[in-house]
Specification:
The chain is of the alpha/beta class. The protein has eleven helices and 33 strands. The chain starts with a strand and ends in a 6-residue tail after the last strand.
Length: 433
């Protein structure tokens, strides 16, 4: 991957994730207890041997910038390796980034100075594991000008949410629709090939595409290249990544049936751009056999270090035992005579006696120097189906997630759970109830 330059798009506002994105960019939203969403894309880069990565930031980037400084300064500039943040600078004219293609156009000088053969463009707001070397091998095999990584998604999920590809028997894209109302399915299935927002370009092909005033790769650039007859291919991540995972397991001497690709997380990809998808993706982590696994060293995940003391569970008396079941509990959490079930608790949460937390995601507290601002869940509180941002304090006997009318009366945002009469409630940062 020495001849490949990567750009991570990390400037998105994340309107559908509000209020979590009222105070930070979408890629900086905490996830899974100790991570930020962008950590998964950057971990993929590291695990794929990519050593030249630009992170393009724009919207409310302070939290993201600080995270990159403290957690991703692992490369040696003397060897020409870097993960560098590039804030929006209005390099061309007086406008900020107007789309994915425009963001790359405004930073085309980096492509000219580094002279890569390939340019890999990535989204910083998806949760998945992917070895980009497999994508590159497919791209070279097909002699493509552009290869688009795609995931197989149900047509209902892809509808009006993703760009959808139509391909021939060789994987060449012969049709493309951006967020169609009636997406075309893969023959014989009810699934679509949906764009993952991952584009591997031959540099010359990319530079030619940027010579126009197109703003977005999905809406503008891909249709233009198809009209021009450029060889554009779809990399079927769902199938090819699972095959590669199985080849690795066989190489390691693994023969157990439960480690076949269908049982691994090699085909897992989730766009966490909505509150429901974000909540579901967090809960995917806490099952005994998780749909997405953050453990293990085969494909390690990296993040900024945390400096909290270890988690603690206290009291062992009837009716007042600190316990967490099917949950992820980060450092700095105290579960004091309370119960946490099917939940993710980030660093710096204090759950007081007789409280109950179920199917919820708590982002944690803040540790700045010697000062700790914790999220505190008071005695006898009940919390279910909730996303609670940092530094929230719930007073005794507060119930969240049980009465939608009452939650909305408090000014909290609620969203329905698909296929259910239930709902998710979101508590914004720094709120006290």
């Amino acid at each position: 991957m020495k001849d490949t330059l990567a750009f991570v798009m990390a400037g998105g506002q994340g309107e559908r994730l509000r209020p979590l994105t009222d105070v930070r960019a979408k890629p900086a939203v905490p996830f899974g207890g100790i991570f930020r969403i962008i950590d998964f894309t950057l971990s993929n880069c590291v695990n794929s041997g990519l050593r030249r990565v630009y992170v393009l930031t724009q919207y409310k980037s302070f939290s993201l910038s600080n995270h990159l400084k403290t957690g991703w300064n692992m490369f040696s500039s003397r060897l020409g390796h870097f993960i560098d943040e590039v804030p929006a600078q209005q390099q061309l004219g007086n406008s900020w980034y107007k789309g994915t293609a425009d963001a790359i156009r405004q930073n085309a000088g980096f492509i000219e100075s580094k002279e890569p053969r390939l340019v890999l463009i990535l989204s910083g707001d998806h949760v998945y594991k992917m070895d980009y070397r497999l994508l590159r091998a497919f791209h070279d095999e097909k002699r493509a000008g552009l290869t688009v990584a795609c995931a197989r998604l149900p047509a209902e999920e892809a509808r009006e949410n993703f760009g959808v590809m139509e391909v021939d028997g060789e994987g060449r894209i012969v049709g493309f629709e951006e967020k169609p109302k009636e997406p075309k399915t893969i023959p014989g299935t009810t699934d679509c090939l949906a764009s993952m927002g991952i584009y591997l370009f031959e540099t010359g092909c990319l530079q030619g595409a940027l010579a126009n005033d197109h703003l977005d790769f999905g809406k503008d650039v891909i249709p233009m290249l198809l009209r021009q007859g450029t060889p554009v291919f779809a990399y079927d991540f769902t199938q090819r990544n699972a095959i590669a995972e199985w080849e690795f397991l066989k190489h390691e001497g693994v023969r157990r049936k439960e480690l076949l690709p269908k049982g691994s997380d090699s085909d897992y990809w989730r766009d966490v751009g909505t509150l429901e998808q974000y909540w579901l993706a967090n809960l995917d982590l806490v099952q005994p056999k998780p749909r997405f696994n953050v453990y293990g060293e085969h494909f390690p995940l990296f993040s900024a270090p945390v400096h909290f003391p270890p988690a603690k569970f206290v009291h062992e008396v009837p009716g007042r035992t600190g316990a967490a079941i099917n949950s992820i509990i980060a450092d700095g959490v105290i579960v004091s005579g309370s119960t946490v079930r099917d939940s993710v608790l980030g660093c710096g949460v204090y759950v007081h006696s007789w409280a109950l937390i179920e199917r919820s995601v708590l982002l944690g507290g803040s540790l700045r120097g010697k000062s700790l601002t914790e999220t505190s869940i008071g005695r006898h509180c009940r919390v279910r189906n909730a996303i609670i941002d940092k530094n929230v304090r719930l007073s005794e006997n507060t119930s969240i997630g049980y009465d939608r009318i009452e939650d909305e009366r408090r000014g909290l945002k609620t969203v329905p759970i698909t296929g259910s009469d239930d709902y998710i409630v979101v508590v914004p940062k720094n709120l006290s109830l």
